[in-house]
Structures are given as C-alpha cells and as structure tokens.
Amino acid sequence: QVRLVESGGGLVQAGGSLRLSCVVSGRTLSSVNMAWFRQAPGKEREFVAGISRNGRSSFYEDSVKGRFTLSRDSAKNTVYLQMNSLKPEDTAVYYCAADRSIGSWTAGAEEEYEIWGQGTQVTVSS
C-alpha cells in the first residue's frame, strides 16, 4: 500500500523559506509521478509543482516559478519542495500526491493522482 507523509510546514515571515518533505512508502520514486498541491481557506485545491517518475521533467504553477523548487532523493524515497521568497498568498495546506499510472501524465490535473498525504500547514505572515 502506497503511503505519503508530509512534513516541514510551519509559520514563517514573508520573504522567508521552508522546505517541505514527502516520504513515500510502498513504492519507489521511479514508479510514481509526484506533485504538490495546496488549498487555501475558502479556495479550491490547486496545483503547485510536479515531477515525473524518472525525475527528468518538472512543472510549476506560474505564481511559484523561480521561487519554489522540486527535488527528490531516491535513496530516502522522498520528494522535497523548497519554497523561497514566501508570500502571504502562499499560505495554505500543502498536499503531496502520487500518480501510479503508466502512460501519459498531466502534472497539474488533480484527477491524475490516486494517493494523497494528510497535508502540512504553511502560514506566511506579512
């Protein structure tokens, strides 16, 4: 059974940084496409960033390009989201998600992902 556990959220001032981690169990990173989504209060969940199973392709939502960076450590079976220059509008619960399917993948499509973590809260104060 695939399980995702996020960590690394917290309270930070605007302009600060956080690194979120998502530990994957039950599957190797090479067998899943991974993504981060976020949901702010009163808003729908939105795509933040995604990385392909081979690690060669990554995608970012426009508002985080240049500020957020995805990486992964296959030895630890962990995906990271480094978030720099944080803004109050980045405040949300951040979710890690995994897509086990073989074939084409649309990183930003929430319906692609079957497995979700419990979420970690990120709060950016102004």
Structural features:
single chain, 126 residues, mainly beta, seven-stranded mixed beta sheet, four-stranded antiparallel beta sheet, 11 strands
Describe the structure.
With 126 residues, the chain is an all-beta fold. It is 0% helix and 48% strand. It has no helices and eleven strands. The strands form two sheets. Strands 2, 4, 5, 6, 9, 10 and 11 form a seven-stranded mixed β-sheet that branches. The radius of gyration is 14 Å and the shape is globular.
In short:
With 126 residues, the chain is mainly β. It is 0% helix and 48% strand. The strands form two sheets. Strands 2, 4, 5, 6, 9, 10 and 11 form a seven-stranded mixed β-sheet that branches.
Please state the average pLDDT score. Answer: 96
The total of helices stands at 0
Estimate the global geometry from the Cα principal axes: globular
End-to-end span in angstroms? 40 Å
The beta-strand count equals 11
Structural class: mainly beta
Percent of residues in β-strands: over 45%
Strand/helix succession: EEEEEEEEEEE
Q: Using the CA coordinates, give the radius of gyration.
A: 14 Å
**Largest sheet data:** 7 strands, mixed
Parts with pLDDT < 50 across at least 5 consecutive residues: none
State the helicity in percent bands: under 10%
Determine the oligomeric state from the structure: single chain
